[in-house]
Amino acid sequence: MRERRAVNEVPVGRRVAQWRVRRNMTQQQFADRLGKSKSWVDKIERGARRLERVSNLREIADALRIDVQVLLAERPVRPGQADAGVERIRAALARYHVPAPPRPPDVAQLRAGLEHAKQSYRHAHYPALLTVLPGLLDAVRAARIGRLTDMLLVPVYGLIALTMVKVDQGELAWLTADRAMAVALASEDPQLTAVATVPLCQALRCCGRNGAAVRAAVVAAHRLGPRPGTQPPASVESLRGTLLIQAALAAADRADEHSARGLVDQAVELADQGSFGGEGFGAAAVQTARVLVEAARGDLPTATVRHERLLASPGWRWLPQEHRAAYLLDVARAYAGIGEMSRAGRALLEAERAARGEVRDRPAARNLVAFVARSTAAPADLTRLAASLHAT
Q1: Is residue 311 part of a domain?
Q2: Rounded to an integer, what is the distance from CA 222 to the centroid of its chain?
Q3: How many Cα atoms sit within 13 Å of 26 on the Cβ side?
Q4: Same domain? 233 vs 184
Q5: In this model, does residue 362 exceed pLDDT 80?
Q6: The whole model's pTM is what?
Q7: What pLDDT, in 10s, does the model give residues 266-312?
Q8: Do residues 202 and 82 share a domain?
Q9: Which Pfam families does the record match to this protein (predicted)?
Q10: How many CB atoms lie within 10 A of CB 102?
């Protein structure tokens, strides 16, 4: 199945071998450091064994003293590559009759493939996603394992929608998110519907349909609300908080300042009630929304103070790399909008350090880099970044 391919077209095993040699280690020494056999290392380097578990990638990266991203796709997506990836996804979406596999599906493998794709998104590895997602969608749709198919299909559709937003394919993102919502609504599961609503809101915002995004997020969050005398699990409360943030950002985009601030206040109250360290929602995530809402209101001094305080907070580093970099791009856009090109340039450089792919592989980000780099106030490093992206 295609979801079992390596995370990018350049064999990961070859990169492992290159870095092992750079570190002056024999295969046996490297194997001993990993607690594996020499045969295992040899198969990895020759490509005879796939590296499909994120934990294995991290162990290898740690042993080689490099960032795990070095082993993954880190080159910018060229326009032709992105177009080809989008077309593969479009073709997968158009396959309405996917035949069942000859053997029962390996559910654990499907789940591992989904988790791997999620990790790629969190690290802004969009080349990997454009390669992996079509095959993963085919495999999940072909599985036909009842209720479990819905539980896997909704997040797969959601990841496709989010990735399409990143490569400026808003209408295709909306189409895909709508399919996820249709599956979720048919399940009559409020939590699964809420999961589908998050990428739907981002797709709607990408298409400028901010009013619809606000309504969808508020309704889904309300349906997740706690019942009297019950305490929802952290995963549900995290999801509700994420929906409130999406609603607040969409309200800010449509210049509804009152609603945006009220929704952020609700998210703050929710974040203050519990610990969401591993759930993707918490004080830092709420503060990113508050900064952007203040910026949308035109209150850049307040937004700047909150922004600097956020970057110094412990929770900042707990945010996924994609979240941090995407937020920094929005901050850069806000500064550029008022002519603060020096600050905009610094925010862009911080975004590139947080997640290379968020700047290098997104058309909108490259355009912003080019715009800011043309200013005489732009940092010299940004000029060099623009040149490396051919965005001048």
Answers
A1: yes
A2: 25
A3: 6
A4: no
A5: yes
A6: 0.78
A7: 999 988 886 655 556 888 999 999 999 999 888 889 999 999 999 99
A8: yes
A9: HTH_31 (PF13560)
A10: 5
